[in-house]
User: Fold these one by one.
Assistant:
Number 1:
Amino acid sequence: MAKKNAGDILTSDWNPVIGCERYSAGCRSCWYLDGIFPWQQRLGNIPPGVQPNQHHVFPSRLTEESLKGKNGIVGIVQHGDLFWDAVPDQIIFRILEIAEKVAGAKRKVPKYMLWTKRAERMARILNTRYPHGLPNWLAVAVSVENQAAASDRLPYLAGIRGTRIIMLEPLLESVSISRFLPVEWVVVGSETGESPRPIDRAWVASIRDETKAREIPFFIKQLGTSHKVQDRSLDGRTWDEFPVGFEK
């Protein structure tokens, strides 16, 4: 489970809707499309007629009861991208409505994380729904893999008020994020899977230095080419920093 994996930032995930398509260079070895989807379909958890590059809603999961038992740091729609343009607005609004109700009923405030490459759509929807800033139970993450993606997506992240996370995974080249700081968390990871493109630790060290110069929590998920082998050390130590209020 994610809670027991030191390199995972999530406690669990909630996937009332699934689906995505390859969007940019970081999607070449997509862990969902190439790994999770076929595995879940073999297990019978996804109907046989559903294709990985189409969105599919699970009515039994699109309920408050489906989310209530999940605590800690919960990834919302990790099996795809909630802000993919194939996902209707009303499904996104329904997911946010469920999360609002469940979070409001819990004694201990969870952290529900939205994680996307489609930063422009996410910013538009969330700024419309939460014009005064995100609620304290919600965090938003934007994935970038190279400098072009950072320059394109991170300005939209900067335009959201609340807990914001830069996810540099898979990191494919040297990237500077200094002009997009501050944010509340920076996370770095290498590519894994079939024929992974290796990461350069000098890239990671540079991002760490930019991040720590602003006293922002920094986390390394993995630096190797296999998710089965824990390779997380940089300059003689692991980086396991979480923002205040985040607890697996």
Note: Residues 2-18+26-238 form one domain.
Number 2:
Amino acid sequence: MTLKYRFNLKDIKLEDFKLYLFSLFKAFIPKKKIKDMKDLKEFIQKKSAWVSQVTLYSYLKTRMGTKYVLHFDDEVLLGSINKAKWNIYSVALQDLTFFSFSYLNVFFNYQEVENAKKIYENILDDEISNGMSADIIEKGKKTFEERLQKINWKTHCGSLPFNDSALSLYEWAPIADELKTLDRKIVLNSMILKWDNIQKEFIKLIKF
């Protein structure tokens, strides 16, 4: 299995959690600068996948307890996790794409913001080969377009740009509703805190 933070779901059992644990440590490896649209696309894809994967699996591990691996023999649960991770990822991609282009527009006077849609849709299309379903891709593109029509590029990067993906984690995590209600604040904060680190990393790496 190639470790690229992509959602390759051939085996979601122990191997998937090994990838999750590895991703926690890989965050500390030195990163290359973001100099063009190709670099930006790669950054958006990898970081969105990383945040989605780590937050979802951390939450599942916390709620399942020390024997969490045993739950992965449940085919119904596997299907729910699969659906959750793709849906969370599609929204995480939107959030990081909008943040990145808003930041570029504000601090680098980058005017070609139409590239945001191109990058988002290209990433989704690339994920078809990794198992992302057509309905999630279609829904993602539709939601992106709806958000695009409302966005203010001059203010977006400084106005809670990652709330949608945090809410998506809360919505899609396959945890009983009564438990999620108790966890709501913790779940939302867990993703927001990880996005805070990604924002800082982006600001350090951007060299447009």
Note: Residues 75-108 form the longest helix (34 residues).
